Amino acid sequence: MVLRLFCVLMCLAGSAQAFELPHDRGTVSLDAPPERIVALGWGLAELLVELDVAPAGVADPEGYATWVVEPELAADTVNVGLRNEPNLERIAELDPDLILAADQQTGLVPQLDRIAPTAYFKMFSADHDNAAKSREVYLALAGAFGVSGMAEQRLDALDARISKAGDRVRAAFDGPVPPVLPIRLLTPTSVRLHGENAMAVAALRGMGLTAADPGAPTQWGFRQARVEDLAAFEDAAVVHFDPFPQKDALFGSDIWQFMPFVRAGRFAVADPAWTFGGAFSLGRLADTMAAALTRIAEAE
């Protein structure tokens, strides 16, 4: 009887330590939670950090620091190459227990699987809600690590952060807030307009604000246009996400100065925020857009 009880307890202890991570191509099953994880997508790296899990390696951590900004990666995070061309040798040298791959590594999964068990997540698709997908992946990771309760609390705090950002904007305008057009200027002649299925638009809706150009859903949530096409948005508040190294060349041009939203004082530059990140990128997107929109309201 004692022996049987001991065996049952040992089985329960073993199952409690097991790691089961469902992903878009199956399930990764490990005997214990992984200690050395390589994250090849910035959004996946972000989700790990928000679970208090520090990835051992990340693709282009310097780019992450420039574009994603928060949450910060650990200083000793190893650079494992580019997101669309990771360094397989460097990944193997890290001897990871688990690799997390996303959209830009779709064709590399078989090679990655030969290095370590690989979980693949299609984070961006026109066939699903990108923001909801990231929350789903976050909760799957949390469940595998056994911290679902903490994850739910952090998502609740995220939603509250986004809602408060919207409150700040409404207070600044002290009246109706114009529809908002989030953009990223690429060159002095080309621009991305963020619309349906964009993380920036998901942030706007969480703020209780209206997107100026939602359009039909696309995989990445944007459409590319010519800068002169922005002239059609006469009534919108236009918010551009930095960085944009060529801003002086564009902002000093005649075509830019004649844009209706520029002449009306409804244009502002937001601090860097990653528009293709994970669920928690919405918090930074909301805060940076709120700060930009507040500057517009205060200038009126």
TrEMBL record:
Q: Which GO terms describe its cellular component?
A: outer membrane-bounded periplasmic space
Task: Establish whether keyword tRNA processing is in the entry.
Answer: no
The secretion signal range is 1-18
What Gene Ontology biological process does one annotation of this record name? iron coordination entity transport
On the tree of life, the source organism's domain of life is Bacteria
Localization annotation: Cell envelope
InterPro entries the UniProt entry points to: ABC_transptr_periplasmic_BD (IPR002491), Bact_iron-sidero_bind (IPR051313)
Record domain Fe/B12 periplasmic-binding: where: 36-300
Instruction: List the keywords (alphabetical).
Output: Ion transport, Iron, Iron transport, Signal, Transport
Tell me its family. Answer: Belongs to the bacterial solute-binding protein 8 family.
Q: What is this protein called?
A: Iron complex transport system substrate-binding protein
> Which organism was this protein described from?
Tranquillimonas rosea
